[in-house]
Amino acid sequence: MTISIYDMDRTITRRGTWTPWLLFWARREAPWRLALAPLLGLALIAYALKWIDRARLKEWGHRLLMGRHIARARLVAAAGAYAEQMVAKDVFPAALAQIAADRAEGRRLVMATASNEYYVRAIADRLGFDDVIATPSRWEDDRLHHRLGGDNCYGDAKLRLVTAWMDREGLHGQHLRFYSDHQSDVPLFDFAAAGGGEAVATNPSPALRRHAAAAGWQIVDWGTPASSIFERA
To answer: How far is CA 90 from each of CA 55, 58, 209, rounded to the nearest angstrom?
Structure first.
């Protein structure tokens, strides 16, 4: 079996999906929470100053703009609507073409992203992915909790989650092709390349473009991602 693993934000999508999701939820489900958005701005500053990590940032944002607990049915409906919007407006056409080409090759399509699993699955389903590896959700009595359900799927943690998934599926030794835009994914790029697979720096950030060129990895540009002060590397 051959496997294609895709990062999502700024690889497939033009922009990050987390802050837009929080604002989408608040506008749709609890407009009064938009008044709390400035507090999210403070949390983003705290993250930029390294006072909190990405996991705490996600939990704070969720608590502020979504609340402590969300019923599953309500969440699934909102995530589906958000996914429809993202796929219609924020996915690079060239990404869609590559996903279709990999599917036509018979490759198993996997989305591996630091974004939250509870809305990533809706996007991945609409794009035709077979599997999702994402930041896990915590559920309590069929309600989503604002705390995460495990490691934030970022950097070394993403590699651990991907290799654990491969262990469960019995897929080690299979040809692996990995697409991502960001330097934080170098551990997974190295893993793919070391196993005889393909590392494809996609819409790469400046740091990743330099690293990929030095390593001899393939570099592709599917479009220009929206800039973010929190994703410069």
So the answer is: 24, 21, 23
